[in-house]
Amino acid sequence: MPDPMATSSRLASAGIMPMGVAQTALFGFSWLLVMAIGLMPLVEAALLRSPSVTTPSLIAFFVAVGSGVLLRRRYSWVGLVMHIYGQIAVWLSLFVMSLAIALFATGHA
């Protein structure tokens, strides 16, 4: 088993800080928020409104980039880009699936 102190000092020498409780909460909340935004077409269909694309995409983009900026000390540049890309990819897949379900359920498919 690797020594946690050695791993921590290696990350610190690379300029990457380990996550604290606040950063872990921010990380989890940003992923939860992105996934909830991906399910917005289902909520809009339940409210008998036409599903919107613009608002959820802007919110998801700014949540992904904003959480990446706030967590920049935790990630290297590649990790930061992968965090943002991963959140946008997860949002997009959930959004497309929930939009297809909403359109099918309302009879527009």
Overview of this structure, please?
The chain is built from 5 helices and no strands. It is an all-alpha fold and 109 residues long. It starts with a helix and ends with a helix.
In short:
With 109 residues, the chain is mostly helical.
- Beta-strand content: under 5%
Find the structural class using helix and strand composition: mainly alpha
Rg over CA atoms, rounded to whole Å, is: 18 Å
Q: What is the count of β-strands?
A: 0
Determine the mean pLDDT: 84
- Which consecutive residue ranges, at least 5 long each, have pLDDT under 50? none
Continuous helix count? 5
Query: Biggest β-sheet, characterized?
Result: none
Taking the alpha carbons of the first and last residues, their distance comes to 54 Å
Order of helices and strands: HHHHH
What share of residues is helical?
A: over 70%
